[in-house]
Design goal:
The protein is mainly β. Helix content is about 0%, strand content about 40%. The strands form three sheets. Strands 1-3-6-5 form a four-stranded antiparallel β-sheet, with no helix packed on it. Strands 2-8-7-4 form a four-stranded mixed β-sheet, with no helix packed on it. Strands 9-10-12-11 form a four-stranded antiparallel β-sheet, with no helix packed on it. The chain is rod-shaped, with a radius of gyration of 29 Å. The relative contact order is 0.18.
């Protein structure tokens, strides 16, 4: 009696792949799924395709599915790594299609969201300290920095073009140069003291 074996059949480990949020123009970390040949015969070369250029494939790791190259033996697997690089903000999705002859075909839905990078905005364009006696210090004058973007900012750096104007820290919510980061929508306070060293207007 002869033995009947099933032909190659590709099976994906999931039917959807979430890549989370990524800043417009910057790639996300890779998300992955596996393809398995659930048949008893080797597949043909595996072909991979994306319906959107914002969702691309990453290879270079042992066990990766390499489009047009990888052949899966019976019950063997390979891994598909997908990277999301949004071209603008907002929700995005694409279909990732896989196929082989023999092996059949299928697709999964990949999704992600493009977000705006961190963007700092000042609450005022200028500060006024009034008249201050030589050697004395003004009252603290403050303004707020807000992150109007959708991504957490890097560490905020503060600098003054004059040693007579210095930032003060120590209060809750202060912006600390080189340390404070602002999440989306968050703000911190910059408190400035003016200590004149000569009699003249300053700006």
């Amino acid at each position: 009696n002869g033995t009947c074996s099933s032909s190659a059949s590709l099976l994906a480990s999931t039917d959807s792949l979430g890549l989370g949020s990524a800043v417009s123009g910057q790639p996300s970390p890779a998300a992955s799924f596996t393809l398995t040949n659930s048949g008893q015969q080797p597949s043909g070369p595996v072909s991979l395709a994306s319906s959107s250029t914002e969702f691309t494939f990453q290879t270079g790791i042992a066990g990766d599915c390499v489009s047009g190259v990888t052949v899966l033996a019976a019950n063997a697997t390979c891994t598909v790594h997908v990277i999301f690089t949004p071209s603008s903000t907002g929700a995005r999705s694409a279909f990732i299609t896989y196929s082989a002859t023999p092996g059949g075909s299928g697709s999964i839905r990949a999704s992600g969201a493009g977000i705006a990078p961190g963007s700092l905005s000042s609450s005022v364009p200028s500060l006024t300290f009034g008249t201050v006696a030589l050697g004395a210090s003004s009252s603290v004058v403050s303004f707020n920095l807000s992150n109007t973007g959708q991504q957490t900012s890097g560490a905020i750096s503060l600098a003054s073009s004059s040693a007579e104007f210095k930032s003060q820290t120590g209060a809750a919510g202060d912006c600390i140069s080189g340390a404070t980061t602002l999440s989306a929508g968050a703000s911190c306070a910059v408190r400035i003291v003016y200590t004149p060293t000569a009699a003249a207007s300053r700006a």
